[in-house]
Write a structure and sequence with these properties.
By secondary structure, this protein is α/β, with parallel strands linked by helices. Helices cover 51% and strands 15% of the residues. The protein contains 17 helices and nine strands. The longest helix has 42 residues. Pfam families: PGAP1. This is GPI inositol-deacylase PGAP1-like alpha/beta domain-containing protein.
Length: 453
Amino acid sequence: MAEPEITGGAGGVSADYADLAMLARGSDDLARTLGRISVDCHAVAADPDVLASAVLSPVTAARFEAALVEVLDGPGGLSGQAAEFGVRAVGLRAAAASYEATDAAGAALIDAVRWSAGAMAPVTLPAGIAGLLITDPGIVTGLIDDPGSFQRIITDHPGIVDAVVGGAPGLLGVLTGGGVVTDVKGGADLVAGLYPDGTPTVTEIDGVADDARARTVPRNVGDIFEGLDYRNSTVSEGQPDRIDVKRIVGPDGTKSFIVNLPGTKDWNLPTDGFNRELNDLGTNVHVLGGDVTARERAIAMALHQAGAGSADPVMLVGHSQGGMVAMQAAHDRGTADFDFNVTHVVTAGSPVGRIAVPDDVQVLSLENKHDIVPHLDAADNPDRPNRTTVTFGDQHGTFEGNHGTTESYLPAGQDLDASSHPSVVGFRDSASAFLPSGDATVTSRVFELSREP
């Protein structure tokens, strides 16, 4: 496997922006300090004792006054240095703001281009398909002879998914008369209205978390992904939504909690009627639309039942939809919907580029570049000092293989323990509350989540 691409975090571009801002603050402080010293020193020239000494020794007094003026107001003097550092602070702030504005404008431009392509799709798409069939008629017979080749094509070029998802709002806008849907979030919100979210219910399941991966105190990032892989593998398609909450007690008695959240297991359509399972397609579109979901509220209920307090550090670890809900919960941290101290989020194969979290929440996102699921929000993860994204390549040739925790994300997560990249090291160091080095105990409790109408 090739070396992964790592963006964001302590070694990311936005960390450089933060450094520019820090340098600006330092320049401001130095300018104020030098300015105060200059003012105080100017006052010395008018001190009564100095003026009185001029009567006794005019030549010496004159030399003193000249030297003081030179030091304060001459070339390289304190007054000039104060002004120079003040100007430098303004320049540093302007540079940081300009770079960040350029990044934001670039992302907005990409969204606008994709929206326009979607709006024009009713005209351009039929012509494009016809042109493709004329120039390469064998593509249809090739797909018929080897249906699996379609998956290979898409997973080799997952940017296709970005283009389709990013263009969908434009197409929906045209189909609904224009102006109704303006972005991906709005399009998801429109579809989410077809899926009633309901009221969450939580039931603790006894005697389930007996696997070693559920009972072992996590010591590194690989152990975190071991726990997620175990939980994700215990829930199959169409089965009830189950999560686990690990309560870690360190040698000093401090508590921390890790919640493992599997991905989507129920691909229900709106025509299927009300669905009691929370790990369904409806939850996906609700989160993509920016909604607080019944699954998020159910996780909060499970944390409460597991004994977590509002001040205890919480790490949310999720695969696919689980990562989406984890990020939304971090976004809602400290509110009535999720009144817990989420300090860390780990996602695996999750489309979370459009979900904002507080600056003090540390996020580690793993994305297989051949996995189409992280592209379902048509947005790159932002480069922020608190958001580290690790993109690796692991092509299995199928949607399922590239998205699986066991096949793709567990090995990639384990590899991070040997990484010396500053962003990965920074995340590992920040997560010490969840990765105790001394004697510690862990208790894992399993909860089944559901919803009522």
